[in-house]
Amino acid sequence: MGKLFNSRFLYSFYFAPGQITIEARAEIQGKLSPVFPEIIIDKIPQKKSATLSLPPGNHSILMKLQDKDYEPLEFPIYVPAGQKVKLEKHFVHRKGKVRLSSIVPPVEARFVNQKSGKKFYFLIREQDYAEHTLDVGEYEMTFQKENYFSQTKRVTIREKEVLSFPIHLEPMLLESWTLGEEQETKSIYLADVDGNGKLELLCFSPQGSITAYDFWKKARLWHIPYKLPEIAYHVVFHDIDRDGIPDFIIPHHHCFLVISGKTHRELFSLPSYWGRIFALVDANQDGYEDIILMRGYNKGIECYDSKTGKPLWSNGQTVGTFCPPVLLNQKNLLYARDGKLIKLDITNGKEDIYLKYSDNASNADDIRIVSLPENKQGILCYSEDEGLLCFDLISGKKLWHWKHHPQNIQAMTLADIDQDGKDEIFIHLEQLYCLDMSTGKVKWQFDTRNPKKLPREIHTEKWETAPLVADLDQDGSSEVVVYTPENKIYILNAQTGAKINEFSTTKSVQSLILFDANHDGQMEILFLAGNQVFCIRHLSEHRIRIFEKNNLSNAALALADFDDNGTQDIILGNREGEVFILDGQSWREIWHYKMPDPTEPISHPPIMADVCGDSRKEILIYAQKTIMAVSKEKQILWIFQAEDKGYNKLFFVADVNKDGRKEVIITTNHKGFVYCLNGQTGEKLWKKDITRLYSSPQICDLEGEGCQEILATASVFYSNLKSGLFYCLNARDGTYKWNPTPIPIFSEGGSTITLYDINTDGIPEIFVPQAGGHISCLDGKTGRPYWHQRLRGGDVKCLSVADFNQDGKLEVIVATANEDNYCLDAVSGKILWMQVLCENQGTVMDTDLGRSHVDLLNLQADLDQDGFHDMVMLNSQYFFSIFSGKDGRWLGHAQEYLFPKAVPHYYLLCDLNQDHRLDFLFVLNSRLICIYDLEEYLKKLIPAPLFASSPSQDASILRLSYFHKLFRLRAYERLEKELSQKASFQTPWQQWFYFYQGICALSREKESLEFFKKSQSLSPNFLDVQFMQALVHLNQNQTKEAVRILEFLMKNFPFDFHPLYLKYRHLLKNQGQNKLRSLLPSIIQKTEIDLKFYHAYCSAFYTNQNREADYFLELSLRYGLPKTPEHSVRLEQYIQKIQYLLEKIDHLYSTHERFFIKDHALEVIPDYASLLDEICKEK
User: Fold this and answer.
1) Percent of the chain scored above 70 by pLDDT?
2) Are residues 26 and 112 in the same domain?
3) Residues 866 and 805: beta-carbon distance below 8 Å
């Protein structure tokens, strides 16, 4: 018995199996949850069981989950005999790392694991990359920052892998600028007041002052000062005096003002106005709108004749409301007072009660006449006591009542958002509400956190908080834009009220304007906050992608498949000797190299090529003077030091001497060296000196024989040859293929040589752009010139050859440094047409044309769908200008806020995202920019820009500004098309509608006089239409009618006549020009316009107003007679000014300016042509 007990004791103490229970857990969906791993004990897989029996002793346990994102657990365990062991083990995710960097820190980063739901948050505080550890797996990562578009991407984090992400969040803010400090600005408006085709930003101060700025250049144009007490008012634009120019109506509480948009003088002024609302109606039926003022004190409601300023009637009824009246019919206005709607007879001021909306003596904040179902009309009325009511317009019956009135201010907008033929009501109270027009029921509401009770002074600006409704992005669904006194702008879905985006400011927002500022087919949001103007967009531009890095070089941009994955990657260099390679799809950095000291700016696109013959690609870097080959492992293979530096260099890798190994061809600029290097060692094989190479050299196989040639133009004017030189070298040894060819002048500033076989002999001809308007076409086999042409523009920068007009013949389209376009016959060089982007409308002193970089893109695309390929010019004025390849007509342009105000000297047209469409890649101002699907992007620039009316902006003013612009660009076909689509373009600008119909008819040599007469009947004081009638009579040789109008204009409006002539003279036929020239002397003598210009010149001269003196000097000669006082003296002064200008042309880049000086002077003094020929001759 004792032995049995001992054996049992020994067994249970030493040999009995132990039991282990393992509770395994893992983080799943953000929580620790039980899991059931595979268990291997002492390398023996175990059956899945909650409890395992093991022999006593030491064991090794390995636990693995089927999910490979978790680390296996391996641990030793000692199992006592006969005992139970309970363990809890947690599986840990495998870890990977990300490196995050932002050019605009701080940025919030959120990573959500798509399997576990676990979230990681990081704040990116610096531009340099900072590492962060994450569980491995698939993630949705979101980057966000206030006033930036958030960015969401999918990414896979792998174990022991570090991913780098440069974060570029696109700002909602496109542009902001500070206005002048003369006076505070309270509201802004956009208009082309003077009709010159350029948009102006008009700023109105609470003291009544008006300041105008060029909207794009931001330069101040003019200022009308007033110093009234500060108070808010709502400016209105209207052509009160019927001269075709918008006038400014300023209902300032202390003084009601009407200011001429043309002369900036007061047309009407009523001090001590003490009112806020007014109406424009033709009370006395004389064809001019009269002014009805509703005043809170003094004489109450008054009506004034707008032409004479004299009162027509007064009814003594004071009106303290802020609610504007509405036109009930042609004879009556409707306004609110003391809980009633009052009908006011506009002819005599008599009143009747129309209906009663409240038992309280409350004033309405807004009344509207609206359309209701079943072709009925109604009246909407909101008051702070009653809320919103709807009445039948005819019977006065109350149709519905929305009893919601939390505050003493409202702002209401009506818009049909679901295309059902009836408007919805958007009313901004303590929240923004959308109501059904038929029932008054709330469709949706959005909490804008508007204060429930606003200070009384804000009440005067209630129109400023009105919600704006428009289809901003033309996707068929409207958006609502609204802002609050808490300085937030909300963009909402108009159908649902869901928030799309929001923008915050530090100051109160005013004057919200919706319009397509950059012609991209999407309306931007322009607004005033404090003394700053902001322009924002509500959606990111998905076609444009931007990467920012400090000091990126504009020229160091290339594409290559660095990681051999079948897609192109982006190679960049900077001015600090660094090279970066970005993944072409994600734009994350995958390689980085810094040159050893001393570093130099990377000045040319790096090249990836196998120069060592080991089937591995090396990276070749060309800095200012240093050329080096580096392996992918960042080992320097060789370095070559050139004897010169510069830009626009040739950098090329090929087997040029047919020895089976790669050579490297490079050129320098200042001294014009050409080198050929051994690609494997960097050893110099040969060198050639051709003296300065600022133009871009080319390498090609001219004759298709397998041997490359180097083409280059020396950037030196050889005085002994009186010409420049064009070179063609054999790339194999640097010898001349043919002797250097003399060309008229040198090439300069990145001009690009173009090759095209125009005579179909299999050898391309060589088109050589040069300085001073010169271009040459050379035989590609011999170098002999086919033709030289001299254009009137500046440096010829670039060109394109094709059959643009589809007549079976090749044309050459050329762009000059003056941003002009020319079309030449490719075979003869004859000029077929020319288009000038900017004409000089000033004096001869303004003929300094300057020089700018331009480039041409021939996408071989028909952008306007007319059957002909169109051209795109890169230029400093618009970045992209699109014109017809057929005849040079302007088609469209971009003024893209996302682009720097410069032209890229180097760019790539490529299919970066592999969608079989061309993308446009370039670097400017340390920003890598890609426009995906360039053709579609450009097509969006062609249609008319989008406009939407708001309390701060009448869309008809913006549409009229666009018509002015089309006329300035002479885009008559487009103008006619827009006019035909705007049949509803009615008052107040109907006179311009008829006027431009006449212009279009005249441009097509059709009957136009009737259109101009219709226009004048609406605007009797419209000088433009009167001049155009004279022009039509001149073209038709109708002397009597033309003289009558010309005498009237020159006698009564002498200082307006010449601007009118400059604006419309291109519509005069040769016959009309000759007729005008023959008639002028007698008209001048009769009207004495010469004396008026003479006196104006004397006044400006003796008061040292030099610019005005130059202007009136020209006018006194242009419209002068030999007997005009001091005619010969002024003629001598003018000749001296011309000679002074010619003396300033001291270099060859400006010789073409002589053409412009001479042509301009010939218009002023046509009788002195031989003298001008002599003094303007090139020396």
Assistant:
1) 94
2) no
3) no
* pLDDT tens profile 821-853: 999 999 999 999 988 755 666 788 877 666 678
1067 domain residue, yes or no: yes
Find the mean pLDDT for residues 666-686: 92
- The owner of tokens 């009237």 is 1048
**CA dist list (Å): 426 to 366, 375, 495, 497:** 13, 21, 11, 11
Q: What is the pLDDT of residue 47?
A: 82
CB-based contacts of 83, cutoff 8 Å, min separation 6: 18, 19
- In this structure, the number of other CB atoms found within 10 A of the CB of residue 72 comes to 15
Q: How far apart are CA 151 and CA 498, in angstroms?
A: 19
Q: Rounded distance, CA 1156 to CA 924, Å? A: 33
1144 and 1160 co-located in one domain: yes
CATH value at residue 163? 2.60.40.10
Which pLDDT score is estimated for 458?
Answer: 40
Domain termination site, one of 42, 71, 89: 89
Q: Which amino acid type is present at position 1084? A: I
Q: How many independent structural domains does the chain possess?
A: 3
CA angle 684, 687, 690 (to 5 degrees): 155
pLDDT tens readout for residues 125-173:
876 778 899 999 899 999 999 999 999 989 999 998 888 888 888 899 9
Would you state the structure tokens that stand for residue 581, as one six-digit string?
């390679």
The answer to whether residues 981 and 1101 belong to one domain is: yes
At 456, is the pLDDT very low, low, confident or very high (cuts 50, 70, 90)?
A: very low
* Residue 863 covered by a domain: no
pLDDT in tens, 1143-1172: 887 666 677 778 888 888 999 999 999 999
* Alpha-carbon gap, residue 592 to 507, rounded angstroms: 43
Rounded to 5 degrees, φ, ψ at 351 are -125, 150
Tokens of 873: 């010019």
Q: How far is CA 789 from CA 764, 769, 776, 786, in A?
A: 19, 10, 6, 10
Rounded Cα distance between 545 and 896, Å, is: 13
Are 1013 and 1087 in the same domain? yes
Q: Place 952 in a pLDDT band, splitting at 50, 70 and 90.
A: confident
Judge whether 61 lies within some domain: yes
Domain boundary (167, 185, 203) is at 167
Q: Which amino acid is at 725?
A: L
Alpha carbon distance 1121, 1085 (integer Å): 8
Q: Which of 147, 171, 250, 188 is nearest to 513 (CA)?
A: 188
The reply to whether 119 and 84 lie within a common domain is no
Give the domain range for residue 63: 21-89
Q: Can you give the pLDDT at residue 457? A: 43
Q: Is the pLDDT of residue 455 over 50?
A: no
Q: What is the mean pLDDT of the chain?
A: 89
Q: Kindly report the backbone phi and psi dihedral angles of residue 654, in degrees, each rounded to the nearest multiple of 5, phi listed first.
A: -170, 165
Residues 29 and 157 placed together within one structural domain of the fold? no
pTM above 0.85, yes or no: yes
Q: Is residue 117 part of a domain?
A: yes
Q: Which amino acid is at 849?
A: L
1060 and 1100, same structural domain? yes
Q: Which residues pair with 54 in a beta bridge?
A: 18
Percent of the chain past pLDDT 90, that is, above it, reads: 59
Domain identity same for 38 and 157:
no
60's tokens? 């090794």
**How far, in Å, CA of 534 to CA of 523, rounded?**
14
